[in-house]
């Protein structure tokens, strides 16, 4: 960022097209700040305002007011209260929806009282005729005492005017309060408040009192003085209410002179669509159909790119192996880093498709209707209508799902949602399920047409979802958290989704997954590679011992190499770890080899298959999956003389993978979102404990 | 006592002046002000939440909050 760039903060109510405007202004220059730290989740981009002037635009989360009720909204307050001087904006660009101008101006009036230069962009003006709205722009500018522009962000109209207005506003730097509502409520009280620190506007001081949020420039003594205003809570609340009423009175005065709606001209698509989408029967059917469509598409559309990624990385590994000089570094690249990156990339198709659907559902306004339909049901289980979005996202990956809980304003409901999301069947469980199901479930049809294997997979999805719901119910009864936050959801107008917005959204969330979770998965793959390729003396002598063993003299060269690999793994550090946990997992029907796979699964669950492939000394590429399966099928449990992966042990493993918390990346995200290790540790021990007990019961009953 | 929660589907009421202290700040900020016209658009299948239109804002709120907000029904 150059020194003379104008810092612009973009603010507006949700559903005003704020994102469209941001995308138009910044295009591909946008970057998401520090994934996924709660306080710095801001999108930034640069914009060329004129030939000589650039602006850095920060997109703040949508909010109805500066008084925050959710984590998302508190970011807005923190930015505006100049917590960090470097970040404080020079100009604020408020986006408003032409149809809901009155409500949008409430936020505008609050911003204006902060006494920062402000531009008002009234969006979706292409709808004015259809809605019977007319605006006197000159009068409105005068009344609001600021730059006002009419735009249609989706149609890319008026963007030039926005840029000009920002420059004009920055040069004039005029920043007068709009209402100064507070003075009129109780002049004496607010005079005292203002006297505390004259460098801040009265409204800023008032926000510090009501929100207990203090910028660095406030001294300790001033902070105490401000907090003394906070003692009389009922008075504070009364004044906040009065302030809001007063603001609306002022806004009504302004709009009376400048804004006319002729209702007779308005056409109403909304009520017709609402009748169908929120219908007590059709509403649920449509939602169910949408869900089925999403799942179907995730599996159908992603199989081709996933296969492609899989083979590409296998080839890349081979290529590196053949072309790099022998040595520890190339081992690290070939066996640690390349498969590690491949393990992250392979999830991109499924995750991107899921986010595509979620973005479309949100853009069209349908998601709010789902929240409306599901709220009462979810509430019985301690969650919130908004929890449905994380629970659906969880079927791709728990990480973005946990990030999606930020819009839930009740802390208890949000926490419960975060804690139960990892029970939903994420895409990393699929390869594990697939191989185990094919081993223990016969490929026959039930009811004459339904494939039993597919049915088992469906049941595992249901198991994950039902467990999530039940866990939520138990948490609701046991967690002693007081949270009396208020539930309100805006039901926006139905819109066709904008391709640009959807594309940017999918890109951003997928990037967040790759760079957030990906880093951890990659790092762990490297650690696991190290543990699997190093060991004490018995590891180093493995090759020698195997070659010198007379039993092995009949083996071909290739078989001998495989045997060496297998013995090496057994004697590596990770093999030793697997052996040391064997007593604990024996009652579940597993041996040390499965134990190793359980340990490596903490990097990412799907590593299970690759690890077993290494242990059973076969190459883990596509052509050989049957070989892995065959090896697993023929593996014998020496104590019982039966197959290792028989029905009881297989079922026990399936149950273990359904319940256990085996994802470091998720734990890291939960830590960041809840700001303490308490909750991720509860997840780790609670879920894994549950998995252990259930697998134990399953194995003991079945065997 | 008439509240938003006692409205029937499609019915219109006016928020009482005395309701101010019972309206959560967030709702107030979204346009749910004393004197404002409020229409009940839709009731969710399990009788909760309620879908209302007030002061041009289309909102879903829970019954619990709606039953705190007194209204006057129009006599006409």
How is this fold's topology laid out?
The complex is a heterodimer of chains A (703) and B (76).
Chain A: E1 6-12, H1 18-26, E2 31-32, E3 43-48, E4 54-59, H2 71-80, E5 91-97, H3 101-113, E6 118-123, H4 128-131, E7 133-135, H5 137-144, E8 147-150, H6 159-172, H7 181-185, H8 187-196, H9 202-211, H10 220-229, H11 233-258, E9 259-261, H12 269-277, H13 282-323, H14 328-345, H15 348-364, H16 366-380, H17 388-393, H18 398-403, H19 411-420, H20 430-440, E10 445-446, E11 450-451, H21 452-478, E12 488-490, H22 499-532, H23 537-540, H24 542-548, H25 557-571, H26 573-580, H27 582-585, H28 592-600, H29 607-615, H30 625-634, H31 647-659, H32 664-674, H33 678-702
Parallel strand pairs in A: 1-4, 1-5, 5-6, 6-8
Antiparallel strand pairs in A: 2-3, 3-4, 7-9, 10-11
Helix pairs in contact in A: 3-11, 5-11, 13-14, 13-15, 14-22, 15-22, 19-21, 20-31, 21-31, 22-32, 24-25, 26-28, 28-29, 31-33, 32-33
Chain B: E1 12-15, H1 25-29, E2 37-43, E3 50-54, E4 57-61, H2 63-66, E5 71-73
Antiparallel strand pairs in B: 1-2, 1-5, 2-3, 3-4
Characterize the structure shown.
The complex is a heterodimer of chains A (703) and B (76). By secondary structure, chain A is an alpha/beta fold. Among the domains of chain A are: 6-172, Rossmann fold (3-Layer(aba) Sandwich); 181-264. In chain A, the strands form three sheets. A seven-stranded mixed beta sheet of chain A has the order 2-3-4-1-5-6-8, with helices on both faces. Chain A has a two-stranded antiparallel ribbon with strand order 7-9. Chain A has a two-stranded antiparallel sheet with strand order 10-11. In chain A, strand 10 and strand 11 form a beta hairpin. In chain A, helix 15 (348-364) runs antiparallel to helix 22, helix 22 (499-532) packs across helix 32 (664-674) and helix 32 (664-674) runs antiparallel to helix 33. The relative contact order of chain A is 0.07. Mean pLDDT of chain A is 84; it is low at 34-40 and 619-623. With 76 residues, chain B is mainly beta. Chain B has one domain: SH3 type barrels (Roll). Chain B has a five-stranded antiparallel beta sheet. The relative contact order of chain B is 0.33. Strand 12 of chain A pairs antiparallel with strand 4 (57-61) of chain B, so a sheet runs across the interface.
